Structure formats: C-alpha cells, structure tokens
Write a sequence for this structure.
C-alpha cells in the first residue's frame, strides 16, 4: 500500500505576512478600518495565519490582510461584509524543509546538539572502552600527530561511524537547518570526536565515513521520521508519534524536547510523498569460491526491508528535485548461521535533479527523465563478504509509467568514492581483514512492474579503486543482483532473487587474487 497524503492549498489575494506575538488559535478575525489611499477606504483582517510550503506554522501566528473597498460601494457595506468571524486554521506543512526564518539561534542549537552528542558518546565509551580516557595531553598529542589510518573492523568504520554521524546530522536538521548546512555540522562533529573524544589518533577513514555516511543515513532516517510526526495530533497518538520519530532520529527528538515542539500544538503533516515498504522473510542459500576454496553452506534465515521513497515526479514549476526527494534503500540480514551471519545496507538517492517530460505532463501516468547528482551508501558485512563505501556523482533516472502499479525504470550513475573497503587476504600489516581504497563506481539498474504479473528487476554495480592503505595495488569488485516477485493476495507475495558477488585484486608485492560467491534467496514478501 502506498502512503500518499494530499496538500491543502490556500490562496488569498493582497496578503502580507507578519509574525507578531503568539495568540490563542481560537481567536476570530474582526475588521478594523484603516486609512485609505486616494479616498478609497481600506480594512485590515487579522486571523490565524497560513504558512507557505515548508513554513513551520505555530498555533496563533497571525496574518494581516489589507483590502481595498470596491469603488462605488459604501464603506459601511464593505465593513459589514468582512466583519464575519474567520478562522483560517493551520495549513499543512512539509516537515522535511528547513526553517525559512532560521537565524543564529538555529545554528547555536545545532552546535549545542553536536557537542551534546559527542558528550553522550564519550560517556558511553568511558564506561566500556579504555580509548575514552581523554586528557589534555592526549588531545595535544592527537593534534600534533594528525591523521593516521586505523585498524578497526569494517563494521565500525563503515556502519557504526556513519550512524554516529547521523547524530550530528540530526542535531542540525532538527534545529531547522538544511541538508547542506547540516553536512558542515556533521563534519565538525566528526573532527571534534577524532581529536578530542578518544585517545587513538585521528583517522582519515573515520572522518570520511562519519561525514558522508552520516549525511546519507541521516537524511534517509530524517525523512522517514517526518512521515511519523504530526504536530496536530494529541494524547497517546502524539506520544507514540514522537517516540517513533525519536527512534528513527534520536537527536531530532532531543531538539524537539528542548524547544517544546514535541508537545506544542501545530499544523498537520500533509506530505504528498508516496512511500512503499516491503518486508521480506525467507531462506538464503550460498555457494562460494573464496580465494580458491570452494564451499557450499547450509541455508540461513534471511530478513530484509526495501524502501521506495518518492514517485520521481517534480513537485515545483521549475521541474527540479532537491536532496533526497526520492531514494531507494535496501536492508538485509542473515541470521542463525554463524558462517554467514551479517547485514547489508544500500542507499541510492538524488541530491539534485532536473526533469524533462517524455510525455504530456498532465497524462494520468506521465513519463519523464531526470538528470542530476546522486549519493550512494553501500555496506555489506558477513564472513564471506565485506565491503563498504560512500560516493557522490552524476546519475540518470528514466521512468515510463504504463498504469497503476505498471511501469519501467532505468537508472544509471557514475560516482567518486571518497572511501571504500573490501575483503582481502593480504592485509596482515594493517591488522584488518580489508584494504582502504579510493576510486570510482558505476551502477545500472532496471525494474519492470507488471501489476498482477509481478515485478522483474536487475541491478549491477562495479567498483574500481586504488588501495590507499593496505597491500599496494588496485582492486575491482562488484555485484549483480536480480529478482522476480509475484503478488499472491493483496500485499503478500513470493520472491526469488539471485545475487553474484565477485572481486579481483592486483597487487605489486603479492599474487593476484580472485573470489566470488553466488546466492539464491527465496522469500515471502509483504508490501505496505
């Protein structure tokens, strides 16, 4: 089921917004006379104001309407006709947009949230980890030494650090800042932690993954939390909405608590963005050729979640797309099998896009093509496969819509990888099981939806990187993933998905290596 809430549009002529002190939202408007221009009587109407798209309207904010009485009409008649009580109420808003009136106070709140996040992280680390015994000497030493590559696990470097980055990111986004502004605070929080939050020297890989991964994971979770929040709700419904939004974006909840927004009466949330969730439960069967060793493993239990956010249709007259107006996210985990246990996360989103129509835009199911910039976040961690990376680049999204639940999507991108990692047998000198690399990635995907006949999809992604810390050389790795899903009853259905993962390493001092694995997933799906 697609979640799609419509906007309520309000259009009033001769309006000028004012923001005086708050008043009770239940007040009714009256019409006091104003001085006229050129002998034409004018009247002012004061009522609870409406908000333009993206403006977080508070209950009681007011709007002044200045209206000229029609020539030839008696002022008394005009005043009587306008003196009826009017309550414009609260206009739905888009909770994803930044505060259009943000000022220094918003930035101060963002900075305070970032510092508070690091303080909480430091307290936790101080209880359980020796590396948090920070002193003035350790801080001075870290600044003097500078950046040094670390030997942490791939999960720590490519998942835990990006999630830590979401705390900084939500501190800023929750304070009313934009994605780009919040990105700077994410970078600041990462630097503060690296030099002042632990005794280990600052690591460049941590800075990259915390910042870029924090933005990718952070904006995705922020938008999902916006789908939960509704300031017009109250009672237990409001409690559960705030709690649910807080689980997705804890530091956003922190900002809402400090300002009182978590319980203040406000506008309803009418977000027109459709969101589709697919839950998968099934069995994953794996065969591998791990650097020359052939293995076939017992089946493992697999759970997965697919998120398709946005309909890839422009919402403004300019035909442009802002950051994360549409994205796809995939999560999966293998359970109850010690040889294959682990999780995977892949995110691909628009950063900015320009739309061109392939059909008439007012068609019931229009076709369009989008060219722009994208961001990707990739993470896979199991005993057979470890890879991680965050990239930005150029992308194209072509969309043909044949009807309801029927259409064809074709997507491609080329991205620069600021930081990546992949499994290698030759990493003893680093203390890790993988090398750090920088390079490029390219991806191509296609998805055909056929309504009651199901969905067929194919995706391939290729990474080409140069090792910057580890065994000197270059690495080429990638994956090819397909799926076929057939609906059975309402949102329930069955799916089959093969996955091929391969890698090749060419090194200067040691022999070249090859490995690959082939997986087949059979699962029950539930679309909501």
């Amino acid at each position: 089921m697609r979640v799609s809430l419509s906007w309520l549009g309000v259009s009033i002529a001769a309006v000028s917004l004012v923001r005086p002190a708050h008043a009770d939202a239940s007040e009714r408007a009256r019409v006091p006379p104003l001085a006229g221009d050129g002998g034409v009587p004018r009247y002012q109407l004061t009522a609870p104001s409406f908000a333009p798209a993206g403006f977080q309207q508070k209950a009681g904010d007011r709007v002044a309407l200045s209206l000229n009485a029609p020539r030839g009409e008696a002022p008394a008649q005009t005043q009587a006709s306008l003196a009826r009580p009017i309550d414009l109420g609260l206009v739905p808003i888009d909770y994803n947009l930044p505060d259009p009136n943000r000022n220094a106070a918003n930035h101060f709140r963002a900075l305070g949230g970032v510092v508070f996040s690091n303080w909480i992280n430091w307290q936790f680390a101080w209880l359980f980890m020796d590396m948090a015994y920070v002193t003035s000497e350790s801080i001075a030493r870290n600044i003097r030494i500078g950046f040094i590559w670390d030997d942490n696990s791939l999960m720590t470097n490519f998942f835990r650090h990006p999630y830590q980055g979401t705390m900084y990111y939500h501190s800023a986004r929750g304070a009313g800042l934009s994605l780009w502004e919040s990105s700077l605070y994410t970078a600041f929080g990462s630097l503060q932690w690296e030099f002042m939050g632990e005794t280990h020297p600052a690591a460049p890989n941590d800075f990259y993954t915390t910042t870029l991964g924090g933005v990718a994971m952070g904006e995705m979770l922020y938008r999902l939390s916006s789908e939960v929040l509704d300031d017009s709700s109250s009672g237990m419904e409001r409690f559960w909405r705030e709690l649910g939004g807080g689980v997705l974006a804890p530091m956003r909840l922190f900002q809402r608590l400090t300002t009182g927004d978590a319980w203040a009466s406000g506008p309803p949330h009418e977000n027109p963005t459709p969101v589709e969730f697919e839950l998968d439960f099934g069995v994953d069967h794996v065969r591998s050729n791990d650097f020359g060793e052939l293995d076939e493993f017992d089946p493992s239990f697999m759970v997965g979640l697919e998120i398709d956010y946005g309909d890839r249709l422009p919402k403004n007259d300019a035909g442009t797309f802002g950051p994360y107006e549409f994205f796809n996210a995939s999560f999966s985990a293998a359970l109850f099998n010690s040889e294959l246990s682990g999780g995977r996360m892949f995110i691909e989103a628009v950063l900015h896009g320009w739309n061109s129509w392939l059909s008439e835009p007012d068609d019931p199911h229009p076709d369009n093509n989008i060219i722009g910039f994208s961001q990707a976040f990739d993470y896979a961690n199991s005993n057979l496969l470890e890879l991680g990376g965050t990239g930005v680049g150029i992308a194209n999204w072509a969309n043909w819509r044949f009807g309801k639940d029927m259409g064809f999507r074709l997507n491609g991108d080329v991205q620069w990888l600021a930081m990546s990692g992949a499994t290698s047998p030759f990493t003893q000198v680093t203390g890790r099981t993988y090398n750090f690399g920088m390079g490029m990635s390219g991806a191509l995907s296609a998805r055909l939806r056929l309504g009651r006949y199901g969905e067929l999809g194919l995706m391939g992604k290729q990474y080409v990187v140069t090792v910057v810390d580890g065994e000197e050389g270059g690495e080429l790795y990638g994956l090819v993933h397909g799926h076929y899903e057939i609906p059975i009853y309402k949102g329930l259905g069955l799916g089959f998905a093969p996955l091929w993962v391969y890698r090749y390493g060419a090194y200067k001092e040691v022999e070249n290596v090859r490995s690959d694995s082939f997986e087949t997933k059979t699962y029950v799906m539930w679309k909501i």
